Amino acid sequence: MSRKCIIWLGLAVASFSSLALMFTWKFAIFVMVMIGLHECGHLWAAKRCGLKTGGFYFLPFLGGIAFAGHATSSKWDTNFIAIMGPVWGFLVAIIWAGIYWVTSDPIWAYAAFWGAFMNLFNLFPMHPLDGSQISKAILASINPWLGLAVEIIGFVFTGLIFIFTLHPVFAFLAFLGWTTLRHSITTEPFVLKKIVPSRIKRQLIQLDLLEKKMSEPPIGETLFDKYVFMTNQFASNPEKEFSADEQGWVTLYFDITHSEELLEKVSQAPEKSAMTLGQIVVATCWCISLAAALGFLMFYIYGVPGWDGAMKELLGRVS
Q1: Helices (H), 214-276
Q2: Residue 257 has what pLDDT?
Q3: Which of 26, 119, 168, 245 qualifies as a cystine partner to 86, CB 3.0-4.6 A?
Q4: Euclidean distance between CA atoms 114 and 106, whole angstroms
Q5: Which residues pair with residue 63 across a beta bridge?
Q6: What is the pTM of this model?
Q7: Angle, nearest 10°, between helix axes 144-165 and 168-187?
Q8: 58 - beta bridge partners?
């Protein structure tokens, strides 16, 4: 058995065990089937977009995660892959509701309710939920800064939920939201194109101020020429103690060089193609319709005959 299979089985057993201990083994089975097929929806969509997939893993207390070989090249593909998880989850909930309508067994109705709730919750714009990817893909196609605003709002919203509930899952989601937001701020091309030139401008001003304070300012037509002059000064006077300003100048030079290299790299980096206006409308209607359908299913099936008994049998208690 490969290492990947061992890890998959270990996480699956841990997920099942945690759910069975908190609720019942029957409820654990329903939840894991829903999570598994939800993640299969993501993998199916990723393959349709031409991506290599690496399967999915169960995550105890959190759900599951699907892996693709590389990032998508368009925001439409990102949206399609993200929304297919809840779409498949909705279809599973419909099948369970259909079994209830045929058998009148309320356990299937209660399972359908929870399945619909799980996928509806997944549409909220909180990282790493699918709703965050969907809303970011749509809004970033209108304006990249709107996509970043979604991440900020999602992080704040998750943090507020944790403050009011003190639930550890929301603490973890808030942590993931913060790491994602920080990654976006430090890597997104549209952000770096805005802040890096300003950073270079400030660094050049600091460099000029240091030169004016130095007893022997560097000589040269370009910044590199001045750097060569400074390094030669260091090399030719190994016993001389250089001032903090002189050492700071060299450090600042490397910072400026790094910023310029980063700006050049960002300017050459390919960006995901934005959705067309038609795709934005379709994606928005698709997401709203799916959320409405999930909510309607929950409303329609809630409180069917035998509801309390099914709740006790699956959750182990009646709330």
Answers
A1: 223-236, 244-268
A2: 85
A3: 119
A4: 12
A5: 59
A6: 0.81
A7: 160
A8: 64
- What confidence tens digit (pLDDT) does each residue in 216-232 have? 777 777 777 777 777 77
CA distance 138 to 77: 11
Determine the Cα–Cα distance for residues 91 and 100; give it in Å rounded to an integer. 14
> Which two tokens mark 106?
């309320």
Burial string for 50-60 (b: 16+ CB within 10 Å, else e) reads: ebeeeebbbee
Phi, psi (degrees; rounded to nearest 5) at 13: -65, -40
Q: Whose CA is closest to 80, among 292, 276, 316, 279?
A: 279
CB 119 within 8 A of CB 294: yes
- Tell me which long-range contacts 301-307 makes (C-beta under 8 A, separation of at least 24): 301/97, 301/100, 301/109, 301/112, 301/113, 301/116, 302/113, 304/100, 304/106, 304/109, 305/104, 305/106, 306/105, 306/106, 307/106, 307/109, 307/110
Q: Locate tokens 């908190």: which residue?
A: 22
Q: Are 134 and 83 in contact (CB under 8 A)?
A: yes
What sign does the CA torsion over 200, 205, 209, 211 have? positive
In the chain, % of residues over pLDDT 70: 95
3-state secondary structure of 65: strand
The position carrying tokens 């654990």 is 28
| Token pair for 247 | 């050492």
> Which candidate, 33, 165, 160, places its Cα nearest to that of 89?
33
Question: Which tens digit of pLDDT belongs to each residue from 283-294?
Answer: 999 999 999 999
Digit-coded pLDDT (tens) for 139-158: 989 988 898 898 899 999 89
Residues pairing with 56 in the sheet: 66
